[in-house]
Write a structure and sequence with these properties.
The protein is mainly beta. The protein has two helices and twelve strands.
Length: about 190
């Protein structure tokens, strides 16, 4: 299957041939191994051939794939905007029906979280043409900022959370921002 693996330094586009599904390649190995890769660094105008590449899993920020997305039945979908490294990602995140962030006892398993109907842009080019994908797997530990309609701290530990609310008039607003405590606050407690 063909994938685009986004890293802090650029995008590697290539083929995953040693795993049945992208999640297997990301969750079961220490590195994502791609063949027939074209590499495009963030500052390069065009991609260049790179042969076979092994990207350490911790360096993978997100992966767009061309295989069929996992079939999720009876999930509630929440629009999210994520910032990770040099990228801004918009998409829909699945939660189980009735998910209540304040009462949730279960945590997402694995390092990667799925989003559907994905749009990826550079943070420094918010008006640029997005890369569009059916779904992506996002390394939840590399997400720095989350904008969503519910608190998703369980999904993205350490990220700054911006929870958007809707007023009675139907206007979107922001209810609050939460995130990791600054070092000065953590030292005082």
């Amino acid at each position: 299957m063909r994938v685009d693996a986004y890293t802090a330094g650029g995008v590697a586009s290539g083929l995953v041939v040693r795993a049945a599904h992208v999640r297997d390649a990301l969750e079961g190995e220490p590195a994502l191994i791609l063949e027939r890769v074209s590499w495009r660094s963030l500052d390069a105008p065009a991609a260049r051939p790179a042969g076979e590449v092994a990207i350490p899993i911790d360096d993978v920020l997100l992966v767009l794939a061309d295989d069929d997305p996992p079939l999720l039945v009876h999930h509630a979908w929440h629009a999210v905007r994520l910032e990770l490294g040099p990228y801004a990602v918009q998409g829909d995140l699945p939660t189980l029906p009735g998910f209540d962030p304040g009462r949730a006892l279960t945590r997402p398993s694995g390092e990667f979280v799925m989003l559907r109907d994905v749009r990826v842009r550079r943070v420094d080019d918010p008006d640029g043409e997005p890369v569009v994908g059916v779904y992506a797997l996002v390394n939840r530990y590399t997400v720095e900022r989350v904008e969503a309609d519910i608190m998703l701290g369980f999904f993205f530990p350490g990220a700054v959370m911006v929870v958007a609310t809707e007023s009675e008039s139907g206007d979107a607003g922001t209810s609050h921002v939460a995130g990791p405590a600054p070092a000065s606050e953590a030292a005082a407690s």
